[in-house]
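Per your request, structure below.
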């Protein structure tokens, strides 16, 4: 599982954790430096990675078994409310990287993906089709896919610089 800190300060201060074993998204509060379990919500079939919007109270969880990204809104006291999968758009993801990234100003979500379907990997597989997906985050939090960019190797992690000028895959 992967841990990602939530929005700092106010009613959102805490930690959100995706748990693959029981397919949940758990919420913990930070009190005097200690974590205090609050609750959890269902997170699809196999939640793999989580990212929090740095500007708006949105949480995104990539779930390759579900072939989508779950979208939650952070409400009062940091409680999570699951939103419809796609809103105005319908799209799917393949095998996703372990980390997603959101531009520091919000507005863009980045996810590395690859596809090994239909491959006979005995004794070894050729490199899979790999790419970086970029999504526009709409004002209501829904995602709109942009054009994918080919990646030469399996994209295992995605991270951006704090000023948003560079993205590393």
């Amino acid at each position: 599982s992967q841990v990602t800190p939530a929005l700092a300060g106010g009613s959102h201060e805490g930690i959100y954790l995706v748990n693959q074993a029981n397919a949940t998204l758990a919420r913990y509060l930070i009190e005097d430096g200690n974590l205090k379990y609050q609750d959890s919500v269902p997170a699809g079939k196999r939640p793999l990675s989580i990212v929090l919007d740095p500007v708006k109270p949105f949480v995104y969880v990539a779930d390759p078994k579900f072939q989508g990204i779950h979208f939650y809104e952070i409400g009062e006291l940091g409680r999570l409310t699951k939103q419809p999968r796609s809103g105005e758009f319908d799209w799917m993801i393949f095998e996703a990287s372990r980390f997603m990234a959101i531009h520091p100003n919000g507005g863009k979500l980045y996810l590395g993906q690859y596809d090994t379907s239909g491959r006979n990997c005995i004794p070894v597989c050729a490199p899979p089709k790999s790419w970086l997906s970029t999504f526009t985050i709409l004002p209501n939090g829904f995602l709109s896919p942009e054009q994918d960019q080919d990646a030469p190797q399996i994209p295992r992690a995605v991270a951006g610089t704090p000023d948003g000028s560079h993205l590393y895959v």
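The CA atoms of residues 130 and 154 lie 6 Å apart.

Regards,
D.
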